[in-house]
Amino acid sequence: MSLKVCLINPPQVFAKTQVASGVTPPLGVAYLAAYLLEDGHNVQVIDALGEAPSVITSFIKGSFLRGMNFNDILDRIEPDIDVIGISNLFSFAYPAVELLSKKIKEKFPDKTLILGGPHPTAMYKEILDDVPEVDYVSIGEGEESLLRLLMYIEGKLHRAELKGLATRNENGETVLLESQKRILDLEQGNVPFPARELLPMESYIQTQESHGSSNGRWTSLLSSRGCPYGCTFCFSRRTRWVKRSAKDVVDEMEYCIEKWGIEEFHFEDDNMTINIQRLIEICDEIIRRDLKIKWQTPNGIRASRTNEIMLQKMKDSGCEHITLAPESGSERVLSEIIQKGKDFNLEQLKECGAAAHKIGLKVAAYFILGLPGETRDDMNKTIDYAKQLAKVGVDEAGFGLFIPLPGTPLWDMSSEYVKDMDWIDLLTIGDLGSAVSFNSEVNSDELQKVRRKAYLMFFIYKFRYHPISFVRSIWNVIQDREETKTERSVRQLLQRFNIRKKKYRGDEVKSSVKNVYSYDSNEALKIIIKNVPYYAWAHTARKSIVFLKQEVKFKVGDFLKRLKRK
Ligand code: B12
Ligand code: SF4
Question: Is 248 in the same domain as 155?
Answer without folding.
Answer: no
